[in-house]
Amino acid sequence: MDKQNSSRRDFIKKSLIGAAAFTIVPRFVLGKGYLAPSDHLTKGVIGVGSMGRGHFGYAGTKTVAICDVDTRHLALAQNALGGGIKEHHDFRDLIHNPEVDIVHIATPPHWHGLMALEAARSGKDIWCEKPMTRTIGEGKKVKEAIAQHGNIFRLNTWFRFDANFYGMNVPVKKIKKVVDTGMLGWPLKVTISKHTGFDWKFYWVGKENLPVEQAPKELDYDMWLGPAPYKPYSTHRVHTTFRGYWDYDGGGLGDMGQHYLDPVQYFLGKDSESPIKIEVDAPQQHSDAVGTWRKITYTYADGCQIILDGEGTEVGKAYIEGPKGKLYRGFKSDIPDLERKLAQYPDPAPQMTDFVEAVRTRQKFALNEENGYYSCTLVNLGLAALRLNRTLHFDSDKQEFVNDEAANRLINQPMRGPWTM
Question: Which positions fall inside the Gfo/Idh/MocA-like oxidoreductase bacterial type C-terminal domain (predicted)?
Answer without folding.
Answer: 168-420
